[in-house]
Specification:
Blueprint (H helix, E strand, L loop, with lengths): L14 E3 L2 E2 L2 E2 L2 E2 H22 L7 H20 L8 H17 L12 H23 L17 H13 L1 H34 L1 H38 L3
Antiparallel strand pairs: 1-4, 2-3
Helix pairs in contact: 1-2, 1-3, 2-3, 3-7, 4-6, 4-7, 6-7
Length: 245
């Protein structure tokens, strides 16, 4: 029966435990389980990698230190010195998306970043937080962000609404980029994998070879999308802190 399920079946949310609170469904689902697994694995890796601080670090410690330095450099280069206070959040955000994307490639594991509600929740929180940071730091002067510098006053009535719309579109584009890439990639893999079953042992070698190639490509996309999401978060923080436009 599992073979008859379509390529979109892998994105269906199913409940392990039905829980209701004040009329709200807060059941523990396969998506929640995947999040717990991702957080647990990331925590174990970084705990073990940072536990031993030796002069000759092992591979795990090198991996942890490289990840830390990578995000630290990203924050410093794209946010500036004022971004240090946001480093824990940005580092956690990167790991949450990265492990969700990569572990989603494991068979039977749910890819929570392939759901728009998850990616929009992250993007919406970032959008609201960045806006409040800008307002707290600059007050009413934050509105200058919507006024392009060096533009003739006659064009401002046209450009200001465009700038406002583009600003409020940020969480939509940020969430759609991650969601669409992960959902499309997993769907494509499922479709080609079904050809292997249909063609059998003799004819399934071609789609099998293509699935292997696409799997490697999808892993690369999973890492890249975590990087893109995180660096855009840094750029939005930079706009809020420095009003660069």
């Amino acid at each position: 029966m599992a073979a008859n399920k379509g390529p979109l079946h892998q994105f269906e949310i199913s409940s392990f435990y039905d829980i209701s609170f004040e009329g709200f469904d807060i059941s523990f689902t396969n998506s929640a389980l995947s999040m717990v697994i991702s957080i647990f694995i990331a925590s174990v890796i970084f705990y073990l990698g940072s536990k031993k601080n030796s002069n000759t670090p092992g591979r795990l410690q090198v991996l942890v230190e490289m990840s830390y330095d990578f995000i630290a450099n990203m924050v410093r280069d794209n946010v500036g010195s004022g971004g240090k206070v946001f480093f824990p959040f940005i580092f956690t955000l990167f790991l949450f998306i990265l492990f969700g994307n990569v572990l989603g490639m494991v068979p039977y594991n749910f890819t929570y970043t392939s759901h728009i509600i998850v990616t929009f929740g992250l993007a919406g929180f970032i959008f609201i937080a960045v806006t409040f940071i800008g307002l707290i730091k600059h007050g009413i002067s934050f509105l200058k962000f919507f006024v392009p510098s060096g533009v003739p006053y006659a064009l401002l009535p046209i450009l200001i609404p465009i700038e406002i719309i583009s600003y409020f579109v940020r969480p939509i584009s940020l969430s759609l980029r991650l969601f669409a890439n992960m959902m499309a990639g997993h769907t494509m893999l499922k479709v080609f994998a079904s050809f292997i079953v249909l063609l059998g042992f003799l004819g399934g070698w071609a789609p099998l070879s293509l699935v292997i190639i696409l799997t490697g490509f999808e892993i690369m996309i999973a890492v890249l999308q975590a990087y893109v999401f995180t660096i855009l978060c840094c750029l939005y923080l930079n706009d809020a802190l420095h009003l660069h436009h």
